[in-house]
Amino acid sequence: MKPLWVIRILFLSLCTLAGYAVSQVRPEYVGQYHGAVAGLFIGFGFGGLLIAVDEMLKGFSLRAFSAITFGLLLGFLVALLIDQSGLFVNAEEKVRWLVRLCLFLSFGYIGMVLAMRSNKEDFSLIIPYVRFAPQNKPDNLLLLDTSIIIDGRIADLIEIGFIEGLVVVPRFVLLELQQIADSADEIKRARGRRGFEMLNRLQHNTKIEVRIHDGDFPEEKGVDAKLVRLARNLSAKLYTNDFNLAKVASLQGVGCVNLHEVGRLMKAAMIPGETVQIKIVREGRDKGQGIGYLPDGTMVVINNGQAHVGQTVDAQIVSSVQTGAGVLVFAEVRLEISK
């Protein structure tokens, strides 16, 4: 059973007991069986009503509640100023009561709507010297999506200290990862399990802290849209391997890091004329060519390397070409077999 439901059951029990206790101090109900039963039912109904309201407000963030409260107070203040302005001083008492009711309801509603549509910059204009952010808020929040968790390289980068910060994993990402792990496709199942292994590895890393974020946006249908909104609300940097998600986040002004792009940029630049030792692992597409790989995974096409398949040779870099899949390097066998 989830901890939240344990709290709800405890709260419902306390409300029921409170209803019974209240019925026993009311003179008209003391000693009456039906009074005790009515108290129990009233307490149970009151607790159930609050739990139902809590369930309906699922996904309703603290920021939204704070904004609505502020907007409601601001609307009531404007309505009070209009009411005290003397415009309706000559109105009859019944008419004035109706006017006041309309004023408070109208401006309260308008205040709540405007507050919900605003952002924190709007609040800064109204109250310039107050910032609605905790003082101990981490400077660097790392928001991870499903692809980056399954990839696993983020865990290695954190372990060597290349990336630092507080790791945030949304609960809707965990649900997506669970769906992948429960897939009927064997490859997808393996990817999902690898993702959970990477999360477990991150949670046991003493260099960083991992938090599961319960925030959700029910009005957003896709996980990508939810990630972008959450990153904007938390002022977090989004880490992903999804090219399209990275582009969407960038267009919406959300900081995003694509590890595929980082890996491409981190590959060492190969200068024509430079000599490298490389093992030729297979034949190339054209006659006489051999294929080898640098330590960072860059493929090297070696002219006159077909005869040295399975051997390590010294090769001189001729040129390099940037392709959609990365850098492709061309080289020539320079010396005799060195090993």
Outline the structure in words.
This protein is of the alpha/beta class and 339 residues long. The chain folds into 3 domains: 124 residues, no CATH class; 125 residues, 5'-nuclease (Rossmann fold, 3-Layer(aba) Sandwich), CATH 3.40.50; 64 residues, Beta Barrel (OB fold (Dihydrolipoamide Acetyltransferase, E2P)), CATH 2.40.50. 51% of the residues lie in helices and 17% in strands. It contains 12 helices and 10 strands. The strands form 2 sheets. A 5-stranded parallel β-sheet has the order 3-2-1-4-5. The protein has a 5-stranded mixed β-barrel with strand order 6-7-8-10-9. Strand 4, helix 11 and strand 5 form a beta-alpha-beta unit. The longest helix is centred in the first third of the chain and has 25 residues. The two termini are 64 Å apart. About 4% of the residues have low confidence.
What can be said about this structure in brief?
With 339 residues, the chain is an alpha/beta fold. The protein has helices spanning 3-25, 33-56, 62-83, 93-117, 120-126, 146-151, 153-159, 171-181, 186-203, 223-234, 243-251, 259-266; strands at residues 141-144, 166-170, 209-213, 237-240, 256-258, 275-283, 290-293, 299-303, 312-323, 326-333. The strands form two sheets. It has a five-stranded parallel β-sheet with strand order 3-2-1-4-5. A five-stranded mixed beta barrel has the order 6-7-8-10-9.
